[in-house]
Design brief:
Distance between the termini: 45 Å
Shape: elongated
Number of helices: 2
Number of strands: 0
Order of helices and strands: HH
Length: about 60
């Protein structure tokens, strides 16, 4: 969203625009729930072993 403010706009006008923008962004805001994915991946190796293996691939 693009909002154009002019130098001639009053403080009240700018505050009204800011309120409109903040209300519209709050409605469109989606919250990411990271707890939903906790424990979903089942690993056969420890994460440290996987990390070391991935780093060794570059050499």
């Amino acid at each position: 969203m693009t909002v154009i403010l002019k130098k001639s706009d009053s403080k009240e006008t700018i505050e009204k625009i800011f309120e409109r923008v903040s209300k519209s962004t709050q409605k469109n805001l989606k919250i990411f729930d990271a707890h939903k994915y906790c424990g979903v991946i089942k690993l056969k190796k420890s994460p440290l072993e996987i990390q070391k293996q991935m780093r060794d691939e570059w050499e």
